[in-house]
């Protein structure tokens, strides 16, 4: 090995910089999870460093650094560098860096780019960073440019090299990159172009044709099937604990006297005769039915060898039919389209249904609350409260993204949200279901059923990790589609062209539905217009939640698309009437001139832009609002000064000075006028209704007349 060795590391370390020894703790200055076994902490000399003790998110995957993947000549360099990233607490070393040091998860992400760079150097015979030349860095840049990877991965690799250079003063001389900044200090945007050139390179929403049935089935589980599944799962747990394996584990497998077994079997068979039940069965390989003796041993609480005993012969000769499965006794009361959603629940499927129910609760909570998936997975029992005075459901929890201390450093334990999420009742109901499903403190534990842990696992978090919830969502879709296939239903969940569903896509999808389908999902009593009021105007609408920015991006896209349609209609000769007609024409023309082709680089930028007065055009039913808050006659949605403030187009006041009417609006008014004409010609209509509808018909007739009268050809 050339350069500094582990033996002389102390002598070569810059003055004032802590030098790790072979037995130095890797997480020496990091906050650790409560209850961490200090004896299991990684040491500098180890080739694998476990990071789990410093990661507080319960849903996080097991994480570690594996230095065996780094070439041997550069391995000590990598260790020293990563150790300093983890433990150096001095001033920040990189431009635009937030806080004094990286979060542990950010160091893990950096390690990926570091490995790429060090392995590239090793293939070219470089054994020390001090030997790296500007030409080598240019060659690395050229090789990256030729790789078929997305632009953001290239950005991350460039950042890994820049970060390595920025921290050179923390390393021994032979482990430092040369003093000149890589690539003459040019920004990544100058070297590769912008990482995001359009809105297409963002988290993709779940298509409407998939999201609607996905939410409908989730709500069915929560609202219609949950009581049946909870009861079945409770009986499943009792029967499982009665089984020979669990009784043997709990030292409860003492052999019962034959007389007691016979007594229990008699009571069991008498109950089946009385209730018209069947013996539990299972399908043999040849297709025939046989008695499921394991299930009988659970029901009777006896040995699995009961089959060969006198009590077993009693069952075999009882004359009872044999079912095609081991069904539970819990009744099914949930309805689906007016009929029971299934006839009965079998012992083997109770555990599966409980997991599906938990997944349905996750989908309901994550989607309808607008919370980040990690925040949902870290929710704990008792997180939902109801305030009778305001009639609001509130959901309390921790957030981790952007949770920083006074110095700007990430707080690994996260922080309790100052303002809770304001949620709809369906979300509160899903939380209640989860609290009934299992006794654990976390709503989404890795395992729902209590279990005996024979040996400690490496992963310390107890919540379901991201990859596991993604698998659960895929299993949920698979179950729904199989159920629809066997029952001949047509409301399955179509496949997504982008592959498996991901929890990270739910927030973006909700923002799209709120903006594009405000009256959606009326059948489930959930309208997205109502959700908008909750999420954007309640406590959940604070910007630390991140959801207003998600919504702002979708709002921006929608407004730009609408403006393009409006300008096209104007150019085709569309007529505009109403008090705000001139303002409408001016804004449409000016906005398209200013924003056509505009590229957004962040959600926050979208939030700022949607507040531009030129974009304050809101299409409603039979009217278009050219919003001037000072003249608005309706109750505005949002707070004064908020760029997301919008008019309440469902409560538009006819005399408002913000109203303009396009030819497209007039088509809707004309249709409504014709409907009212038919209603008012009905001689059997009640007088009060007849008078009300006649007044509305005359008002609409006046609007139609004014619109036609103001056409340029009529004026001439």
Please indicate the count of domains: 4
Work out the number of β strands: 15
User: By helix and strand content, what is the structural category?
Assistant: alpha+beta
What would the principal axes of the Cα set say about the shape?
flat
Helix segment tally: 23
- The CATH architecture name of the largest domain reads Orthogonal Bundle
Strands of the largest sheet, in order across it?
Answer: 12-15-14-13
The rounded Rg comes to: 33 Å
β-sheet strand percentage = 5-15%
Q: Main β-sheet, in a few words?
A: 4 strands, antiparallel
Q: How far apart are the first and last residues' alpha carbons, in Å?
A: 93 Å
The CATH class designation of the largest domain is Mainly Alpha
**Mean pLDDT, all residues:** 85
Tell me roughly what share of residues is in helical segments.
40-55%
- List low-pLDDT spans: 195-201, 249-253
Overall description:
The protein is of the alpha+beta class. The protein folds into four domains: 9-193, no CATH class; 240-335, no CATH class; 337-451 and 464-539, Orthogonal Bundle (hpI Integrase, Chain A), CATH 1.10.443; 546-715, no CATH class. Helix content is 45%, strand content 6%. It contains 23 helices and 15 strands. The protein has helices spanning 9-12, 72-87, 104-123, 134-146, 151-166, 188-192, 208-242, 244-249, 258-275, 293-300, 310-316, 347-369, 373-377, 425-437, 466-487, 506-516, 528-537, 547-571, 581-595, 603-609, 663-680, 687-709, 712-715, and strands at 48-50, 64-66, 281-283, 289-291, 335-336, 339-340, 384-387, 392-395, 398-399, 415-416, 421-423, 576-577, 617-619, 624-626, 659-662. The strands form six sheets. The chain has a four-stranded antiparallel β-sheet with strand order 12-15-14-13. The protein has a three-stranded antiparallel β-sheet with strand order 7-8-11. The chain is flat.
